[in-house]
Design goal:
With 219 residues, the chain is an alpha/beta fold. It has six helices and eight strands, in the order βαββααββαβαββα. The strands form three sheets. Strands 3, 6, 7 and 8 form a four-stranded mixed sheet that branches. α3 runs antiparallel to α4. The termini are far apart. It comes from Trichonephila clavata (Joro spider). This is Amiloride-sensitive sodium channel subunit alpha. GO terms for molecular function: ligand-gated sodium channel activity.
Length: 219
């Protein structure tokens, strides 16, 4: 049996990304969560707010980047072959595609669609620490009950109620940008005013010198 712990907004195939579990064992899964908040365009992270899109689209559509990618697969295979691949996890009622049906047309539309599925503005990462032991190790009886050898016991433990969040923020906020530019303008104006005052003073001294020289020559 396979088990997977993941975001409620994404479908995952446990056989590919899950934990393999065997009968007669007890599994303790300790879960911690990290959240990362990115910035949309024009910032470098150029993320997409899928939650806002979902709300604007009458609460339908993907809630996360991976499901956006799976939606691309379903839309394109439906367009060309009226079917959905077995590995596509986006909800649909189409028949399962035969891989022999795929042509170059799929790739032509798929990759441009994939580029539109930008990274999530809010990403939650689930970190799992899995501990497994034979269930019989917890039993004091000399001979474990038959159920202990046939059943799988799973305990999922959320270690911390708090979620550690990492924020990406602009290098300069709007207020900081204006302050930064304003500071430069203030310094420039200050220097300019000092230079103008020096220039006026120099002109005044030159005129005074010329006036005195002219008066002395007349005398």
């Amino acid at each position: 049996m396979f088990l997977s712990v993941h975001s409620p907004y994404i479908g995952i195939n446990p056989a590919e990304k899950g934990i393999f579990m065997e009968a007669g064992k007890t599994y303790k899964i300790y879960v911690t969560m990290d959240k990362e908040t990115l910035l949309p365009y024009p910032y470098e992270t150029d993320c997409m707010n899928y939650t806002k899109l979902w709300e604007n689209n009458n609460r339908t559509g993907p809630r996360i980047q991976e499901m956006c990618q799976h939606k691309c697969i379903v839309q394109i295979t439906e367009k060309y072959y009226n079917c959905s691949p077995l590995f596509a996890l986006y909800p649909n009622n189409l028949r399962i595609c035969d891989l022999s049906e795929f042509t170059d047309e799929f790739a032509k539309d798929y990759f441009p669609c994939l580029k539109r599925c930008k990274d999530d503005c809010a990403k939650t990462k689930y970190i799992l620490d899995v501990q497994e032991r034979f269930t019989s190790d917890y039993i004091w009886e000399a001979k474990p009950d038959e159920n202990h050898t046939k059943h799988i016991k799973v305990e999922i433990i959320v270690q911390k109620a708090e979620v550690i969040t990492f924020f990406h923020r602009p290098q300069y906020l709007d207020v900081e940008v204006f302050s930064y530019i304003g500071g430069f303008i203030g310094v420039w104006l200050g220097i300019s005013l000092i230079q103008i005052a020096d220039l006026v003073e120099s002109i005044f001294l030159i005129l005074c010198y010329m006036f005195k020289k002219k008066n002395s020559s007349l005398n």
